[in-house]
Amino acid sequence: MPKQFDLLIFDWDGTLMDSAASISSSLRAACADLELPVPSEESARYVIGLGLADSLKYLLPDYPTSGYPVLLERYRHHFVRQDRETTLFPGAEATLRALRDTGFTLAVATGKSRRGLDRALEATGLGGVFHATRCGDEGFTKPHPDMLLWLLDELNVDRGRTLMIGDTSHDMEMAAAADVARLGVAYGAHPRENLLKHAPLACLDSFAELSQWLNTNA
User: Quick check: 1 pLDDT over 70?
Assistant: First the structure.
């Protein structure tokens, strides 16, 4: 069957890397360090994928922006300590390399900072797999469509031949705003019901299911 997509755009945290729990716990620990209200696990997971400013506005609406750098430093302290325990989902590397070898153009659209993504790409050895990447500190953040529109322009791919794959409602909203097809994965940060509200082509429960879906349908 001829493939229906040329460009596959992946979110990173919670989609390719099993990092949602690390992000959530690091956010909560950073707040505790500074004696700020500690968000619930559900709230901390909800903001995964958003840019830093949007995340903190949601979690700590009364906290001054002047304090963001200190809070970010504490978050990074806790997150980096968990680096060795934070890995790609089983099968992710092999699937990505096979998709590229098959002829797909691969990209990443993530709320991570450029510094954070580059560090993750180096640690996983996946830097050479993706044709382009776009981060949360390089323009408008999710759910604004800027990341996807930039990637479409950079890679010269039609939006009708593009699929966004992500684990949060922010990913699904971004794809809808860019008029791009979307695929939800319910093994990351947001529950299935949040993803289904945004009419994904499918909502998958494991990376193995995602890999199979892409091999069969993409």
Answer: no
